[in-house]
Amino acid sequence: MLPKRQRERAEEFHRLHANDKPLMLVNAWDAVSARLFEQAGSPAIATTSAGLAWSMGYPDGEQMDKRELIQSCERICRVVTVPVSVDIERGFGRTPTDVSETVRALIELGVVGVNIEDGVASGSTQLVPPVILAEKISAIRAVAEEVGIRFFINARTDTYFVPADDPAARFDETMNRARIYIEAGADGIFVPGLESIEEIERMAREVARPLNIYAGYAGLPSVAALERVGVRRVSLGCGPLQAVLALARHIANEVLKEGTYTSMTASMISAGEVNKLFLKG
After folding, report:
1. Average pLDDT over all residues of the chain
2. Which of 124, 155, 262, 270 is 20 to 30 A away from residue 228, measured at CA?
3. What domains appear along the chain, each with residue ranges and CATH number?
């Protein structure tokens, strides 16, 4: 039997997708970023798959070992009290059984949701058939029901990341995949690369689950605009870490080339403030 608190967090995570305002996720890549975002007021923590990989010295794309993924998520779950959702890319497993084992391990840590994607077939520019992700979603749902948790499955489709000559056909393919994933047990639909406010509004209206938009780069509509058209979840993905890395590179260039420290000292968080993030009581 799972702890009562974990089951309560799972229910809370679902409620956060049904509020008047979209759920804003400033995606974390390690324990200190997760704790910092929680302290800033984030009602939930979601990981960035790219950020987790980069923080451990791997490129994005399931290049790190599943064991390292689990260890990173264990540290995040240890330091935060809000619901935690993990981006598991394609599930860190080739088969639905493999994916269910990944999710079972995450649930044992206290995780209450995952983001899982279809993606592009190896060596091509075509998306994998939707049945592949649908089977994985069904396997995850079965594990969640077995252990008794209202686990949130956010199904990502990369239809807007592959070449498309016909925008109307791309929209229809996205909706088709969304319906398949919802039928398999998805609680939310994530469409990174979707930028047109008109298409976003139409998709939010027609998809039968909360729509998640990726806003990790310049040019995306504001949160207020996304709220007006019905978006229920907005993810910054690896954007925050990319911004942090840009600052870190600037600090290194300044001190190594100019011998000054201004870009570092201008807006530092004190060591005391960082320590307080992890003090109990």
Report:
1. 97
2. 155
3. 4-238 (3.20.20.60)
